[in-house]
TrEMBL record:
<keyword id="KW-0804">Transcription</keyword>
<dbReference type="InterPro" id="IPR036390">
    <property type="entry name" value="WH_DNA-bd_sf"/>
</dbReference>
<protein>
    <submittedName>
        <fullName>Cyclic nucleotide-binding domain-containing protein</fullName>
    </submittedName>
</protein>
<dbReference type="InterPro" id="IPR036388">
    <property type="entry name" value="WH-like_DNA-bd_sf"/>
</dbReference>
<feature type="domain" description="HTH crp-type">
    <location>
        <begin position="149"/>
        <end position="220"/>
    </location>
</feature>
<feature type="domain" description="Cyclic nucleotide-binding">
    <location>
        <begin position="15"/>
        <end position="112"/>
    </location>
</feature>
<keyword id="KW-0010">Activator</keyword>
<dbReference type="InterPro" id="IPR018490">
    <property type="entry name" value="cNMP-bd_dom_sf"/>
</dbReference>
<dbReference type="InterPro" id="IPR014710">
    <property type="entry name" value="RmlC-like_jellyroll"/>
</dbReference>
<dbReference type="Pfam" id="PF13545">
    <property type="entry name" value="HTH_Crp_2"/>
</dbReference>
<dbReference type="Pfam" id="PF00027">
    <property type="entry name" value="cNMP_binding"/>
</dbReference>
<dbReference type="InterPro" id="IPR012318">
    <property type="entry name" value="HTH_CRP"/>
</dbReference>
<keyword id="KW-0238">DNA-binding</keyword>
<dbReference type="InterPro" id="IPR000595">
    <property type="entry name" value="cNMP-bd_dom"/>
</dbReference>
<keyword id="KW-0805">Transcription regulation</keyword>
Length: 234
């Protein structure tokens, strides 16, 4: 994670997402702008966290590790999304791992300054309340809910989520064949069954294997298979 020393860019993101009234004047000197490259982790499950982060550009993947050691994808998020809000309110360690799918920008504010300037500021508290309430209402048992969908739908949704970022038309990524074991774990299926589904998608002209990658050939058809993208419907 790299801090961007550019106050104009920080101001741009504040204005773009109408955050000036939420992250109000006393907090401004203590705000920091950070960029993460694709594949970098913003935070990892179980780690201590000292900052509240607001995603202002790009896409992140949120996943969890069960007590049995299994990794499961929960969802993908785009702006505007707050990361570390529940941990800040509860004073807990990181609940889920958050990883950049595309290059991302986040605004960070240390808990020290949140405690000093934010605890009695109604617009910021209302903002956090809205975010946390939405998460608990929509994310409750979300991983179990996703497992009710066929593997075809889960894989189609995953491929669309990791391959495209609607806010960045220049971003396009192909899935490495070597990562299919991880993908099987993330979407909650076996590697053998995942390969059967991929072969069926190849036969239907939706994707193809090319030079070690799974390449999307029919984005529209893949979107129709996914229906509403179950990992980005929140």
């Amino acid at each position: 994670m790299r801090e961007i020393q550019d106050q104009e860019q920080l101001k741009y993101f504040l204005q773009l997402h109408q955050l000036e009234s939420v992250l109000y004047e006393p907090l401004h000197p203590h705000l920091s702008l950070h960029r993460l490259e694709q594949g970098e982790k913003l935070c990892s499950q179980g780690d201590a966290i000292e900052h509240l982060y607001i995603l202002v550009q790009g896409k992140v993947k949120i996943f969890t590790n069960s007590t049995e050691g299994k990794t499961l994808i929960l969802c993908f998020k785009t702006p505007i999304e707050v990361i570390g809000d529940v941990e800040y309110i509860r004073g807990s360690h990181v609940i889920n791992t958050v990883e950049a799918v595309s290059p991302i920008y986040v605004i960070g504010v240390h808990h020290q300054w949140m405690n000093k300037y934010g605890r009695d500021y109604a617009p910021l508290l209302q903002f956090l309340l809205d975010i946390v309430t939405r998460k608990f209402c929509l994310d409750s048992d979300f991983s179990s809910f996703n497992l009710m969908y066929p593997v075809e739908v889960r894989l189609a949704s995953y491929l669309l989520s990791v391959s495209f970022d609607e806010s960045n038309s220049d971003f396009h990524e192909e899935l490495r064949v070597s990562s299919l074991v991880d993908v099987a774990n993330l979407i909650g299926t076996s590697y053998r069954h995942l390969n059967r589904v991929i072969r069926k998608m190849i036969e239907e002209g939706l994707v193809e294997r090319a030079k070690g990658y799974i390449v999307i050939r029919d984005r529209k058809g893949l979107s129709e298979l996914a229906g509403h993208n179950i990992y980005e419907s929140l």
